[in-house]
Amino acid sequence: MAVMKGQEKGRFHDVATTFMFWIELDDIFVAGFSQVSGLEAETEIEEYREGGVNGYVHKLPKGVRFPNLVLSKGMTKSPALWSWYESTIEGTIERKTGAIVLQSADGTEFGRWSFFDAYPVKWTGPQLNASTSDVAVETIEIIHSGLYGDFQA
Predict the structure, then answer these.
(1) What phi, psi does 139 have (nearest 5°)?
(2) How far is the C-alpha of 128 from the C-alpha of 82, rounded, in Å?
(3) What are 74-93's pLDDT values in tens digits?
(4) I need a labelling partner for 98 at 20 to 30 A (CA). Which of 4, 13, 37, 149 fits?
(5) Contact 31, 75 (CB under 8 A)
(6) pTM for this one?
(7) What is the DSSP letter of 39?
(8) pLDDT bracket for residue 16 (50, 70, 90)
(9) Mean pLDDT in the chain?
């Protein structure tokens, strides 16, 4: 029997959509964000040329790099994100553990990317323009010490 893409041992796997997700900070749902970027991990390499061997270059793993997470959402009256960033401005680094949780089409949890030792390094307010009717969006950029995916079948 041929195995079709997305099927394994007679079972179809769920496919997640990118518009159904939520954010947790310290195990608490914080807000309905409209966009998340920075879900990346990159293994840095170091090139090493071995003396007398000119046919290739050794590429050795050096470490893993995680870019900042950028979370965007519509402005609300809740000062939670600004207050978190404000503590950084005042010199008090308030580290949090968090997760970006992806949902299946039926609303159940599909999987999550967890991060830790996170704190905000940038807050951006909305672009104000009286000639448009866009939603006012705030963005917070956070630095973290690692990203781990949990997508169990």
Answers:
(1) -130, 140
(2) 18
(3) 888 888 888 899 999 999 99
(4) 13
(5) no
(6) 0.77
(7) -
(8) low
(9) 84
Tokens representing 70 are: 């950028």
pLDDT digits over 90-111, tens only? 999 999 999 998 888 787 888 8
Name 44's bridge partners: 63
> Where are the extended beta strands (E) located within the chain?
7-8, 11-12, 21-25, 28-31, 35-37, 42-48, 58-65, 69-74, 96-103, 109-124, 137-143, 147-150
| CA distance between the termini of the chain | 22
Report whether 99 contacts 3 (CB < 8 A): no
Q: Which residue has the tokens 């900042």?
A: 68
Structure tokens at 45: 């390499």
Only one residue has tokens 């809740």, namely 78
Give the CA angle between residues 142, 144, 148 to the nearest 5°: 120
Amino acid 103 reads: Q
Beta bridge partners of 124: 139
Provide the 8-state DSSP code for 63. E
The fold adopted by the segment(s) 7-41+67-150 is Pnp Oxidase; Chain A (2.30.110)
